[in-house]
Write a structure and sequence with these properties.
- The chain has 330 residues and is an alpha/beta fold.
- The protein has two domains: 33-142 and 278-307, Rossmann fold, CATH 3.40.50; 144-257, Rossmann fold (3-Layer(aba) Sandwich).
- It has eleven helices and twelve strands.
- It has helices spanning 3-29, 44-60, 74-86, 103-111, 144-158, 175-191, 207-220, 232-244, 260-267, 279-294, 320-325; strands at residues 33-37, 63-67, 91-94, 116-119, 138-142, 163-169, 195-202, 224-229, 252-256, 273-276, 304-307, 310-312.
- The strands form two sheets. It has a six-stranded parallel beta sheet, with helices on both faces. Strands 7-6-8-9-10-12 form a six-stranded mixed beta sheet, with helices on both faces.
- Helix 8 (232-244) links the parallel strand 8 and strand 9.
- Helix 2 packs parallel to helix 10 (279-294), helix 3 (74-86) packs parallel to helix 4 (103-111) and helix 5 (144-158) packs parallel to helix 6.
- The longest helix has 27 residues, at 3-29.
- 48% of the residues are buried.
- It binds alpha-D-tagatopyranose.
- Residues 39, 43, 45, 120, 170, 174, 176-177, 205, 231-233, 257, 277 line the site of alpha-D-tagatopyranose.
- Alpha-D-tagatopyranose binds at residues 39, 43, 45, 120, 170, 174, 176-177, 205, 231-233, 257, 277.
Length: 330
């Protein structure tokens, strides 16, 4: 073979090897994508969860996308999860809108080989190691029962251990809020006969509905001394009704969730205690778990994680810890 032909042959060989190797290299190095399907659009709790999840994804060097329904409704959330499956995301963090109705679509994601972690809510009975649904890898959320109990213990103390309490939570089948309701009712029960319950209303996570319900409850039971607003919009609506009725300071309010509005209401003596969840931490912990699953590090994944609260009152609202716990709305 003359020199020219030898050169050409070896160039072709290198080119062929490179073009064979190139796709493999791209595949091996392709950035993974982790998706978050959150509970509902425009809720500062989920805006903050998304921020924490995105920051963790950036730190870990994975792509991140997020989407969620405009209303709390499994029929609207299901196609969003299906779209993530069709898009072939590598891992999924989901806030299921219903513990039963969201099982089928998440099962489809799991069948497509997508590791799943649920945050804030669970599917089945929430026991992913021995319960009715076990394919999600982890359930990461606040200790909602404990938070509801703590909020209502604090309200009862503020009422001097007696009087009537009114409870608002989002819906009757959302695990987070039913646990908060039950925690609050346990505190009422433990307080003895001096504390009575005006009732429990379900606000559908809608502040306007919560305001109307609170106005009706205050009219029916003018002796209501305290209100447990069991999620962001429930507390926001209750605070608006109490302000309009000129009862700020007379009727005590506990806000589960810490948007800016709750902090303004705390400073204005309308709200007395704010239970801040840590949605950014919840989102970040979930992305880490999905990343671990994608990197053969399943041993690092804990099936159930309860994240702590920051309890904000007028005494500590200006501390760095309390300020850092306030939710972001964009
Ligand atoms: O309280 C949060 C969340 O934990 C709950 O599951 C639904 O409502 C919020 O998103 C606040 O609006």
């Amino acid at each position: 073979m003359n020199r020219k032909i030898t050169l050409l042959a070896s160039t072709l060989a290198i080119f062929a090897a490179a073009s064979l190797a190139a796709p493999q290299l791209t595949l091996a190095q392709a950035k993974k994508t982790i998706a978050l399907v959150y509970g509902i659009k425009g809720d500062a709790f989920y805006v903050t969860m998304e921020k924490g999840a995105r920051a963790k994804a950036e730190e870990l060097g994975v792509d991140f996308i997020a989407d969620g329904p405009s209303q709390w409704n499994p029929a609207l959330q299901t196609p969003i999860v299906d779209a993530m499956i069709a898009r072939k995301v590598d891992g999924l963090v989901a806030v299921p809108n219903d513990p039963q109705a969201m099982i089928a679509v998440l099962q489809r994601a799991n069948d497509a080989g997508i590791p799943i972690v649920t945050t804030d809510q669970y599917i089945g009975d929430g026991d992913y190691t021995g319960g009715s649904v076990t394919f999600p890898l982890s359930y990461i959320a606040s200790d909602n029962f404990g938070g509801g109990q703590l909020a209502c213990e604090s309200l009862i103390e503020g009422m001097g251990g007696e009087g009537m309490l009114y409870v608002l939570v989002s819906t009757a089948n959302v695990p987070s809020d039913t646990a908060r309701r039950d925690g609050c009712l346990a505190a009422v029960e433990a307080a003895g006969d001096g504390v009575t319950l005006a009732g429990v209303d379900y606000t559908q996570s809608n502040a306007t509905i919560a305001t109307t319900q609170t106005q009706a409850a205050l009219q029916k039971n003018p002796e209501i001394a305290a209100i447990f607003g069991g999620n962001l919009f429930s507390a926001q609506g209750a605070a608006a009704a109490v302000k309009t009725a000129n009862l700020a300071g007379t009727v005590k309010i506990a806000s589960f969730d810490a948007p800016e509005q709750a902090i303004d209401d705390l400073r204005a003596n309308v709200v007395d205690i704010v239970i801040a969840q840590q949605p950014a931490l919840i989102g970040a912990t979930a992305v880490q778990a999905v990343f671990d699953a994608l990197n053969d590090n399943a041993d690092a994944i804990v099936p159930k994680v309860a994240t702590p609260f920051v309890v904000i009152t007028r005494d500590n609202v200006d501390t760095p810890e309390a300020q850092a716990a306030i939710y972001k709305d964009k």
